[in-house]
Design goal:
Layout: E1 18-26, E2 36-41, E3 48-50, E4 59-61, E5 66-69, E6 75-81, E7 99-104, E8 111-116, E9 124-130, E10 137-144, E11 155-163, E12 169-176, E13 181-182, E14 188-193, E15 208-214, E16 221-226, E17 232-239, E18 244-252, E19 262-267, E20 276-279, E21 285-291, E22 296-301, E23 308-313, E24 319-324, H1 335-338
Parallel strand pairs: 1-9, 10-17, 18-24
Antiparallel strand pairs: 1-6, 2-5, 2-7, 3-4, 7-8, 10-14, 11-12, 11-13, 11-15, 15-16, 18-21, 19-20, 19-22, 22-23
Length: 349
């Protein structure tokens, strides 16, 4: 009995935290029931990283949002919010002390408030006004090669961009709008464009967008069109551009050819389109067709070699040469960790 350790009693006092109340209304002032409201502390915006074991890589763990649904009268309440900024004046609040609050309901545009301060000792109230989703536009047409032949199985999607009042392009829009489509056996496509994806800004043409087509062996091709809510456009022809042909070699520091190396090219600053990929042959040579006249970044991977990350490819440089360094030998006592030596992240998509 002398070996027993006395148990110390510990009292845990639960913290109620702060609460957020509010109401969800339509543009006409009608309450919206069943809307989903989510709250997340900005300190938890990034995924948590934990290490499950000494032989394992870091694993991301998603932090759950606090959620609630609006009642029949449009009101909602969320409790248990950790208020780390209590006692501070609004003028002293740091941006990171704000909270992300989002609200969505079928048929309405998503509402997002990125800097909403929450206090423990005050009543936190948020009025959310949801806008109706504009009716989507539909664009139909053909994907053709440079000789006018129809191209099946081409990837077709839409992208938005803004133009100043004088018509000069000022900024790219919000990336891909809606779900990409594919041309059928006759080269025909039908694209549904969600108008909520277009940018609405002062002194900018908000209904101008691109229809974009991609197919192996051709450069990504853009066709500008004007759309609006409920627009039905037909007869749009997207004539694919052959693009540029790039040749190159992959070798080691002794100029020995490296076969079966994987070469991936991605456009600079653009993760929405496809990545051009190929492999080197037995003599270490490769070819990639369909490059546009823009900057690219190259990733090169080969078994037994340290991967090359983000090698710049300048427009007009059609002869590339990649020199790879052998990966160091794997530790004999940890083959699993050694197998990851020289590994790298894949190019952005």
């Amino acid at each position: 009995m002398s070996d027993l350790v006395p148990i110390t009693a510990v009292d845990l006092l639960l913290d109620r935290g702060a609460s957020l109340e509010g109401i969800v209304l339509s543009e006409t002032g009608q309450p919206i029931a069943g809307a989903t409201i989510e709250v997340k502390n900005k300190f938890s915006y990034f995924d948590l990283i934990h290490f499950p074991g000494p032989a394992c890589d870091a694993v991301s763990e998603r932090v759950e949002w606090l959620k609630a649904q609006s009642r029949l009268d449009g009101t909602f309440s969320i409790e248990g919010i950790i208020a780390s900024n209590e006692g501070e004046r609004p003028s002293d609040l740091l941006p990171s002390h704000g909270y992300f609050v989002s609200c969505e309901s079928p048929g309405f545009l998503i509402f997002v408030c990125g800097e909403f301060p929450v206090y423990r000792a005050r009543r936190n109230f948020l009025k959310v006004t949801l806008r109706k989703c504009p009716e989507p536009a539909v664009v139909t047409g053909l994907v053709l090669d440079p000789d006018g032949r129809r191209v099946p199985s081409a990837r077709v999607y839409s992208r938005a961009f803004e133009r100043d009042a004088d018509g000069k392009k000022s900024a790219c829009g919000s990336g891909i709008i809606g779900t990409p489509a594919e041309s059928n056996a006759m080269g025909e496509f039908s694209l549904t464009v969600k108008m909520s994806g277009l940018k609405f800004a002062a002194d900018a043409v908000s209904n101008l967008m691109y229809v974009v087509a991609e197919s192996p062996g051709y450069a990504r091709t853009y066709v500008p069109v004007n759309v609006g809510p409920g627009t039905r456009l037909s007869g749009i022809s997207v004539v694919l551009d052959r693009g540029s042909l790039v040749r190159g070699t992959v070798c080691d520091s002794n100029r020995r050819a490296i076969a079966d190396a994987r070469i991936s090219l991605a456009e600079d600053g653009d993760s929405f389109g496809g990545v051009l990929e190929t492999s080197s042959d037995a003599s270490g040579q490769f070819e990639i067709n369909g490059l546009r006249d823009v900057h690219y970044w190259a990733w090169v991977a080969a078994e037994g070699f340290i991967h090359l990350n983000a090698q710049e490819v300048i427009p007009g440089n059609l002869n590339l040469s990649f020199v790879m360094t052998p990966a160091p030998p794997s530790p004999s006592d940890d083959s699993s960790s050694g197998s990851r030596t020289g590994q790298s992240s894949p190019p952005p998509r």
